[in-house]
Structure formats: structure tokens, C-alpha cells
Write a structure and sequence with these properties.
This protein has three helices and 20 strands. The strands form four sheets. Strands 1, 2, 3, 5, 6, 8, 10, 12 and 14 form a nine-stranded mixed beta sheet that branches.
């Protein structure tokens, strides 16, 4: 009997060690939880299982490219299953170029999530990754994303614009978005790619498909009529020194602002 109990406890301990987060790292004043893979790290939830803690991520989260554990540096390559799921006070997240995969339900039901900054290294967005992110107004899918899973953006009721930088349409599930988005939102694709998206599985569901201008950025430091640029901001409202790929907010000396896509 004692031997049976001992074996059971060993199994329980091993199971716990598989699912518990391995390390906690403070990044820009926020605690981020990680699982250690063989030579990499993945962002995960706090504790032994999803739902054990709620709202462990709040405000603005900036995921680093790498973390150090036991004097060894590990690249952050994945966002684990349900890592941020139902964190209702999460407002914005920046995902670094090192992350290639956002797993199933990673940001599902993050109802306050208004800004998601995806990087060019991203390849795969799995099923339900951003489902029910009801505050998300737009999403920029960088060049290089190859696969968008079922219901990835379903239930994103505020979504009005989807920017896709792939000239050739990537793999996109037929239900990656919901009917409301397909009918009322605008899919914005590279210049000359509209016809390809209109015939591609998943993408052809969009009623409104527009092309980016041949040159989305014109000279912003204009001196015409004395008007010139005084500040440039990213979509998070942070001042930046120069235009970056994505949405830029330009402030002019006449008090006006303009949103420009690069």
C-alpha cells in the first residue's frame, strides 16, 4: 500500500512539474511567466494550469526577445496555450520577432485588449488565439505569417480593419473571422494583390477588400504653407524618432494629426 502511494505521489509531482511555469521574469515592471523548452522559452500562464489564477497579466505587456535562466540565455519563441486567456485587464501586448507561434486560445477573451503589436518573425496564429477580444479595433498581420487558424479572430466585435502584408495570400481558415467581420470590416492588402485575395480560401469571405497605395507613405516633413511634422507616435501612443512599419500617428505644427500606414 505504501509503495502504491509512493508511486502515485511521484506521478503527481511529475505531472505538476510539466504544467507549472518554470520561471518568472520581470520585464518593464511586469511579471511574465515562462516554460523552459529544450533550448527555448515559451510564455505561459501563472501556476500549474490555466484558470488557477485570473488576470495575472494586466495593463501593457512587452514580451522580450530572450530571458536568462540559470546563467543561460534562452530565446522566447512561442506563446503557450491559453497563456493570456481571460486576462480582462490586459490592454496592449507587444510580441517580439523571435516568437514564431501564438498557440490555441492564447489571448482568448481578453476583453480590454485594444492593441496587439505583431512582429515579422511570426509564422502561425493557432485556433482561437484572439477570439472574443472585443475591444480590438484593427490588426496588422506582418509579412511572413503563413497560417491563421479557425476562429482566431472570431468574436472580435470592434474589428474594423485587417492589414495583411503578404503579397501571396497565406493559409487562412474559412472561419478565422466571424460573419460580422467578413461583412462589415475592411481587409487591406498589398498593392496588386486584391484579385489573389478575392479568390483565396478564407480571405475571399471578406466583402470589402482594398489595396494599399503604391506608396503608403508620402513625405511627412512637409514645409508646404509652413506646415511641418513635429512629432511621430506609434499605435500605442509612444513617441518614436522615425516612421516604422505599421500605423504611425503624425502630429503637425498646425495642431492637426494624421494616421499613416507604412
Amino acid at each position: 500500500m505504501k509503495r502504491t502511494l509512493y508511486v502515485f505521489l511521484l506521478i503527481a509531482i511529475n505531472i505538476a512539474s510539466v504544467f507549472a511555469h518554470d520561471i518568472i521574469v520581470n520585464s518593464k515592471g511586469k511579471s511574465i511567466y515562462y516554460n523552459k523548452l529544450i533550448d527555448e522559452m515559451e510564455v505561459t500562464f501563472r501556476g500549474n494550469s490555466w484558470g488557477e489564477f485570473t488576470n495575472e497579466y494586466t495593463g501593457v505587456i512587452v514580451i522580450p526577445t530572450s530571458v536568462t535562466y540559470m546563467n543561460k540565455e534562452y530565446t522566447v519563441t512561442r506563446i503557450y496555450y491559453a497563456a493570456f486567456c481571460a486576462c480582462s485587464n490586459l490592454n496592449a501586448v507587444t510580441i517580439p520577432p523571435s516568437v514564431t507561434t501564438i498557440e490555441v486560445d492564447a489571448f482568448k477573451s481578453c476583453t480590454s485588449l485594444g492593441v496587439v503589436n505583431l512582429s515579422k518573425g511570426l509564422k502561425k496564429i493557432e485556433s482561437g488565439a484572439f477570439q472574443y477580444c472585443s475591444r480590438l479595433n484593427y490588426i496588422i498581420l506582418p509579412e511572413g505569417v503563413t497560417d491563421i487558424g479557425s476562429k482566431s479572430f472570431a468574436g472580435c466585435s470592434s474589428l474594423t480593419s485587417i492589414y495583411c502584408y503578404n503579397v501571396t495570400p497565406n493559409i487562412c481558415a474559412n472561419d478565422a473571422f466571424d460573419d460580422k467581420t467578413y461583412n462589415t470590416s475592411t481587409l487591406i492588402v498589398p498593392y496588386g494583390a486584391k484579385a489573389a485575395y478575392q479568390s483565396a480560401e478564407g480571405w475571399k469571405n471578406f466583402k470589402n477588400i482594398e489595396e494599399m497605395a503604391p506608396s503608403s507613405i508620402h513625405e511627412v516633413n512637409t514645409t508646404e504653407n509652413g506646415i511641418k511634422t513635429i512629432d511621430i507616435y506609434n499605435s500605442n501612443g509612444n513617441k518614436i524618432s522615425e516612421l516604422h512599419k505599421g500605423i504611425n500617428i503624425i502630429k503637425y505644427n498646425n495642431g492637426k494629426t494624421k494616421k499613416i500606414l507604412k
